């Protein structure tokens, strides 16, 4: 679960990490009613889940209220890397002397948290990492020891940083680590970690990613997710623990499978035929009749989706359950929709009988390739 900047900063604040005063608003009226709480000048920041907002025009400075209101109107509604800006964070602008980069992420290879630091933070960190890798350090943290003083000391001595920032930095790093572990994060990133003209450290930006499986432990994050302006089908799917991924709006094909790897293979093969995929649904585990039926109903709630390609592969998955689920969904009547299904697993032989009884809205395929071919051919003859 990725967090928007303002939510991430709320967590930073909770852990004693300095952030700017700010307000969040979704409309010009809301801005007008809240902006008085802040002292100008302001920074206006598009709240979208992508980085590089600064470079994309999603971060603007305003000297006073009038300018802030005018520029807000330009940012709200703009599209940054496919995301429409629905919310704006307005903060008090700070004067900065320097920008550092600091993050903690879960290193899945070493299976430990890793601290990443660079004295060259800011909007060009990707280039720094590529062209000047010596200006970036990665330090593995022993999860049984946590962050110790030596981690901050190592960073300071490696880059020859001014010792007057040491105490503040060491405290900030250990608080960030506390947040990282207590919130079951896979990433918490502060870029830039700014040094103000008054020699204070302050987090000007925050990216955070919380392990989805831990959300039951974090009601505040759960609530944040529910409040996000997401596709209703994503939310519907989540109720059943399905992952619904909207893809190309121009297409009328959806794909459903039990596993992300196979889902991607199916999408690739369909794309190779020159078609595009509108949406993908990962069933996760437990392909029971009821779950399959619910998943199909969710897919077809999108009226533009006309074709559903299903590929289920499982040792213990019972094919008759899957076929039964298809039948159950179709009992509710899905006119003008076609399902192409490929199944592998227990009781496969019974499947054909079940599918036969459904009629010609369901087409059986022996393998993914055959299924994709059949999909292409029925679409071309419609
Ligand atoms: P990003 O481009 O999505 O990473 O957005 P950031 O929040 O990191 O902002 C981009 C850049 O804007 C930062 O690297 C800063 O240089 C600048 N910036 C953001 N907030 C402030 C601020 O309060 N004061 C000043 N002087 N610059 C800021
Ligand atoms: Mn940033």
Give Rg in angstroms: 25 Å
Ligand catalogue: guanosine-5'-diphosphate, manganese (II) ion
Structural class: alpha+beta
Largest beta-sheet characterization:
7 strands, antiparallel
Spatial separation of the terminal alpha carbons: 40 Å
CATH topology of the largest domain: Rossmann fold
Mean pLDDT: 94
Q: Which shape, going by the Cα principal axes?
A: elongated
Descriptive overview:
By secondary structure, this protein is an alpha+beta fold. The protein folds into 3 domains: 21-92, 2-Layer Sandwich (Dna Ligase, domain 1); 96-223, D-amino Acid Aminotransferase, Chain A, domain 1 (2-Layer Sandwich); 232-380, Rossmann fold (3-Layer(aba) Sandwich). Helices cover 37% and strands 27% of the residues. It contains 13 helices and 19 strands. It has helices at 5-14, 28-34, 65-75, 125-131, 149-159, 166-182, 219-227, 232-239, 260-272, 289-301, 319-331, 348-358, 368-380; strands spanning 2-3, 22-25, 42-46, 59-62, 79-80, 83-84, 88-92, 96-107, 112-118, 137-140, 185-196, 201-203, 207-210, 243-246, 253-257, 279-282, 307-318, 338-346, 362-365. The strands form 4 sheets. Strands 1, 8, 9, 10, 11, 12 and 13 form a 7-stranded antiparallel beta sheet that branches. Strand 18, helix 12 (348-358) and strand 19 form a beta-alpha-beta unit. The longest helix is centred in the middle third of the chain and has 17 residues, at 166-182. It is elongated, with a radius of gyration of 25 Å. It starts with a strand and ends with a helix. The mean pLDDT is 94. The structure holds guanosine-5'-diphosphate and manganese (II) ion (MN). Guanosine-5'-diphosphate binds next to strand 3, strand 8 and strand 11.
